[in-house]
Design a protein that fits this description.
The protein is of the alpha+beta class. The chain has two domains: 149 residues, 3-Layer(aba) Sandwich (Aminopeptidase); 123 residues, Gcn5-related N-acetyltransferase (GNAT) (Aminopeptidase), CATH 3.40.630.30. The chain has eight helices and twelve strands. Strands 1, 2, 3, 4, 5, 6, 7, 8, 9, 10, 11 and 12 form a twelve-stranded mixed β-sheet that branches. Strand 10 and strand 11 form a beta hairpin. The radius of gyration is 20 Å and the shape is globular.
Length: 287
């Protein structure tokens, strides 16, 4: 018998087991989720005969579409099924059940970031369509920009709240997912796991840039989000290496067309009115 429900604190050990089996994340990374964002209602579980076999966390976000409106959106995260229970459609059943919870909570949209191409197909079979794009760029060492002349600018550590505010200011006019400060605090915790990682403001010639630097498996830093005045991009790239010595040369921006995240409308009138050729920016996904 299958049953879908919200979690309880007693479920945390099983959730952590599924997380480790599915993603292999170290304890400190998972600890960060439970220390910064977790609440029982933010995790949905599928039980089979009383045993939790699948789960998904969700972040309570806002889909901001300039000129159209703002829509509460559930961002699915850490969708996992126990390896011994895979291949029986349990994850699909969980997603369908989650939709019922979200409708009941008045949430009209669901988003997710598939970790690999096959998962884009899986989520597509469960009602999601491509929507969110970004640009992922990589500067090889020989392509690094020369350091601009003048005194080094200040790379200022920001609190999660201040970063969230700067992020919204930089994304004004762009269709995007707006993150609550609790979710940005989770990102800040993930950044702090690697030396040099963090949420930063960089004062540029034409305004402040938002820089999110997170560690990769290699130990180098990924600039997971770079939001700056377009005319300052080359200037910023010239300063990132000296300011972030562990930077890998990889950075992400809203400008690009690489598929990244998917969208499902839960209200038929919103789905019918949405122009699927339009794209938006999700950005700080916890991929």
């Amino acid at each position: 018998m299958l049953h879908i429900r919200t979690s309880t604190p007693d479920d945390i050990p099983r959730q952590r087991e599924l997380w480790q089996l599915a993603f292999g994340d170290e304890g400190t990374y998972v600890d960060n989720f439970y220390n910064t964002y977790y609440k029982p209602e933010r995790m949905l579980l599928l039980e089979e005969d009383g045993v939790v076999q699948a789960m998904t966390a969700w972040f309570d976000t806002t889909f901001v579409v300039p000129g159209r409106g703002e829509y509460r959106a559930a961002y699915l995260y850490a969708v996992a099924t126990h390896p011994q229970a895979r291949g029986r459609g349990l994850a699909g059943r969980l997603l369908s059940g989650a939709d019922g919870f979200f409708r009941g909570w008045g949430i009209p949209a669901v988003t997710t970031v598939p970790a690999e191409p096959s998962l884009h197909r899986f989520f597509g079979k469960n009602g999601f369509r491509e929507c969110f794009v970004h640009g992922q760029h990589c500067l090889r060492p020989e392509e690094r920009r020369e350091t601009p002349p003048g005194a080094p600018p200040k790379l200022e550590h920001l609190t999660a709240a201040d970063y969230a505010d700067l992020r919204e200011a930089r994304l004004a006019g762009t269709p995007h997912i707006s993150l609550p400060k609790e979710a940005v605090a989770y990102q800040a915790g993930a950044c702090a796991l690697t030396p040099g990682g963090g949420l930063y403001a960089l004062e540029c010639p034409n305004g402040a840039a938002a820089v999110c630097a997170e560690g990769m498996e290699s130990g180098q830093l990924l600039v997971k989000e770079l939001l700056c005045p377009p005319e300052d991009l080359e200037w910023v790239l010239g300063w990132l290496s000296p300011l972030l010595p562990g930077w890998s040369g990889i950075y992400r921006t809203p400008e690009g067309d690489a598929p990244f995240g998917m969208l499902k409308w839960l209200r038929p009138e919103l789905e019918a009115a949405w122009e699927w050729s339009c794209t938006a920016y999700l950005g700080l996904a916890f991929d």
